[in-house]
Amino acid sequence: MVGQxxxxxxAPSPTGYLHVGGLRTALYNxxxxxxxNGDFIIRIEDTDQSRKVEGAQRNLIKTLEWAGIVADExxxxxxxxxxxxxxxxxxxxxxxxxRLLEDNHAYYCFSxxxxxxxxxxxxxxxxxxxxxxxxxxxxEMGGAVPSxxxxxxxxxxxxxxxxxxxxxxxxxxxxxMIRGPVEFDSSTIDDQVLMxxxxxxxxxxxxxxxxxxMEFTHIIRGEEWLPSMPKHLLLYEFFGWEPPKYAHLPLLxxxxxxxxxKRQGDVAVEDYxxxxxxxxxxxxxxxxxxxxxxxxxxxxxxxxxxxxxxxSLERVGKAGAVFNVEKLNWLEKQYIKNRPxxxxxxxxxxxxxxxxxxxxxxxxxELISSDRYLGQVIDLMRxxxxxxxxxxxxxxxxxxxxxxxxxxxxxxxxxxxxxxLLREFVSALEAVEPFTAEAIESALKEFVAPKGLKxxxxxxPLRILASGVSFGxxxxxxxxxLGREAVLRRINKGMERxxxxx
Length: 502
Hints:
This protein has helices at 20-35, 56-66, 90-102, 113-125, 147-155, 203-213, 229-239, 269-275, 279-287, 304-310, 325-338, 341-358, 365-368, 371-381, 390-393, 407-413, 418-431, 437-448, 456-467, 475-482, 484-497; strands spanning 7-10, 39-44, 84-85, 106-109, 161-164, 171-176, 180-185, 193-195, 218-222, 245-249, 252-253, 321-322. It is mainly α. The protein folds into 5 domains: 7-82 and 205-249, HUPs (Rossmann fold, 3-Layer(aba) Sandwich), CATH 3.40.50.620; 91-195, Glutamyl-tRNA Synthetase, Domain 3 (Glutamyl-tRNA Synthetase, domain 3, Alpha-Beta Complex); 262-337, Glutamyl-trna Synthetase, Domain 2 (Glutamyl-tRNA Synthetase, domain 2); 339-398, no CATH class; 407-497, Arc Repressor Mutant, subunit A, CATH 1.10.10.350. α1 (20-35) packs across α10. The N and C termini lie far apart (86 Å).
């Protein structure tokens, strides 16, 4: 393996959505490969056909590509091989399983599911760790079953599985790139099934065969696969192959430090996409779930290229990483603050088009679709939105006249004289030239000063009439962006609809 080109892989099962933990595994494999100028490959592990979900494979690939994780050897990179599909490679697994049978490292097992469960319950009652009792271990491997009996069962077409024979009383050891030396006692390892009765290999068997044939140099995966290591390493030993290097990532935890689960929040990447999170923020956030650049840096916002340049397995910790949505929200805001206005405009136009289809607006579609106008809205609202879609949904008053007014705000801000003052001030607004924030502010202050009033007497009602709500950006800048025609129309329309308190 010395001098070999680095190759990593992400090997999901097509059983549903992409878990955020799966995204992290894919991302770390991708970053490590790219950092080492190597290759990142996707392999679909669909050997458990009973759990296969229609469309899941396509969705997994689509979600990874959304995050900027594109496999080498895939059509997107000019290749013809990706993703690799295990169900298309069954002949290979059978071939290697036959080798293990010939070398007495595997044997046929005809035990029924009822027998296996009965044996399991008996061992549990005895306080033992459940393991297969080797009822069908052949004589030539130290068991009690004659080879003729096994041949007879096969000839009769009896269903069977093929199990690996785990050596008795040996130590299985390896050096984890994150955890250091890890050792297992073979007495705790069951004779795992290699080939199932349906002719499909188990995950453990197929993954080892493929990892070797595909020449992967590093296997980076979740901590939950650590107990499987001795089974995998024994297979490498049986075949006489050099195993790749392994790194097992820490668990993802809820804020209460329990294992991340759907019971306490969203765990599917698709859920976060639907909520409006960007690929930039999600990738940045997931990268830091277990990894950090190290002491001496205060950087928290990283581009994909920066992550590639700085990522290392040496900086991945052993302890579980807490999934903190507040941190994700903070990152999303950082990206919105610094994202080019042209990129945001492209993102929000489909959202705006969908809203326009739902409503009638007195503002022309030409104005709403104007990049200049959208750019003004974005510049004014960057600090106030949490997602790109909120430039439309949270700031709807920039595109649609209010159809309701915040009731409590009206009660609080209207006095009997308010509408009379507003009607008088409309004349002043009509004369403001140019219609800028500075000119509007000057006009309002010049209007209220001779009357001995504070500016707030008009600021709050104007905001409510212009937007329908009592909060938002600077009033004067909001009115400037809306424009004179829309502002005057909204003031006059609102005064007709709002009943002045007596």
